[in-house]
Amino acid sequence: MLIPKLAFKNMRGAGLKTWLNAGVLSMAFVVIIWTQGLYQGIDAEASRAMTDAEYGGGQFWMNGYDPYDPLTLQDAHAPVPAPLVSMIDAGRAAAFLVVPATIYPNGRLMSAVLKGVDPDQRVLSLPAAVLKASHTEVPALIGTRMAQSAGLKKGDVVTVRWRDARGTFDAREIEIVEVMSTVVGTIDSGLIWLPLETLREMAALPGQATIVVTAKGTAPGTLPAVPGWTFVGPDVLMKDVKTLVQSKTIGASIMYVILIFLAMLAVFNTQLLSIWRRRKEIGTIMALGMPRGRIVGLFTLEGALTGVLAAAIGAVYGIPLLALTAIRGIGLGASLGDSFGLALSEKLYPVYSVLLVGGTTLLIFLVTTAVSYLPTRRISRLKPTDALRGRFS
Amino acid sequence: MNDGMIIRTTSLVKIYPLGEQSITALDDVNLDVRTGEFAGLVGPSGSGKTTLLNILGSLDVPTRGSAEVLGERIETLSHRKAADLRNRHIGFIFQTFNLLPVYSVYENVEFPLLLLGFSPAARRKAIQAALEWVHLADRAKSRPSQLSGGQSQRVAIARAIVKKPALVLADEPTANLDAENSHGILRTMEDINRELGTTFLFSTHDGKVIQHLRRTITLVDGRVAKDEVRSGA
After folding, report:
1. Does ipTM exceed 0.95?
2. Which of B16, B60, B100 to mutate to test the interface with A (most CBs of A within 10 A)?
């Protein structure tokens, strides 16, 4: 217990210097945890929004549907199989029909995708009920992005042209009954939501659908096997989001490494300076009979304790600060989510997991200890007589 | 060594390399010091006093020859054994006091006892006694920066004697002190020598110290030029 006792005494004796070193290091702790929490918050927020508004508990895709190939959409439909109809009737799933189309807003021509949704469905968080409330012949729901790109607003009537199942081109006027605001760009950009049965009638596809979305939290093991349809789980659907967040996280990781490096540089320099400044003291304690190994241990522990003190200081101001941002969120501005390519609301709520806080603290503590040890190795090569004269051999 | 000798050097040589040349700091030094002596190595600067003191204190090793201190051959000791010898049996007093700046007087004197693993009660008792020896019991809580030169050297003496070592090596202990403080400190060391039987070996060229010594060993160019025992010592 001698070395910890002496290390503690030395740190206490160094007074302001100790507090300054630990204070600077604590900032690295807090900033690292804050930035990582921010990216975890982005991940959580994007995943939650996509799950609620688009992916649900996973989707059955009719074979032949490829969301990344618009040319396949024309033929991406099939009768909804009986097991899925049972799930839809029980409110555990909802059917969606996808039909490519062209619209003519304000005399322009624009490609769009018509998406049929049951106005009564509760599986996804969509304001589809507005489609039921309207008395218009073909009510349509669009998002703010689509409204902006097409120059449409609530109450506008626009011509839509599509090809039905028989290969005949048809056209009709639809009325925009609501412009919804959503953070999920993929249920907005280029999409026009119509009542499912109306779209089925327009496309001559009665009882057909392109995808069937299961309710959030549905256990994949409880789902029926449906020939001609493929179940795509939430993990697969979320892959793109995860990849995007991961690519953003790489930038954060570089910042993480830079911050740790800067903090460690500060610790290394402080240790080196401390050994240089205290070389006579080292010589004295050598003369008093402390073996070199214990002196190395003493100085290393002093550095490591600086890390512990930094974590404690960081906790004092960091926990309230981080908790405040986690509760109140951080304002990002309306367009930041879209510029990120992720479903983000105007406020981002960072997520500070136990793993993040504990892992970062442990990592910094270990690196601080290792960095504290490096300069102290010089002590093991130091001659007591040189140290006493204030020289480094 | 069971013939009453605490120090014995035989044909001791210390050579320092200096670039392509070398400096002979000690040249064929043969010396015996008995337990309980109050002796000093005297001579001009560069005569090898500090080098000899460092070797006898196991802080350095000879180039050739032998230095035996308390029965241990310094030239054969490992770093750990040398540290152990200093820790248990040798007290050091330095010209610049070398007190640990962030520790109080009490903690400075306590340091050697912590290394020796004394119990808290034993430490308290020994520190109290050592501080009373040097008349600084009332300054136990002071920091070195709050002490005068004389007081600092008294703390260094207390730190050197607190573990009751067999041998105290003092390198120019009065070089930074005025005459009154120098005599006061030397009288304290004489008292300790007399009452505790501690052997003192000084390195000095200070006349004030020399007049207190009972034996003076004069070094010139690394050799023992004269070895005198004062009459009545």
Report:
1. no
2. B100
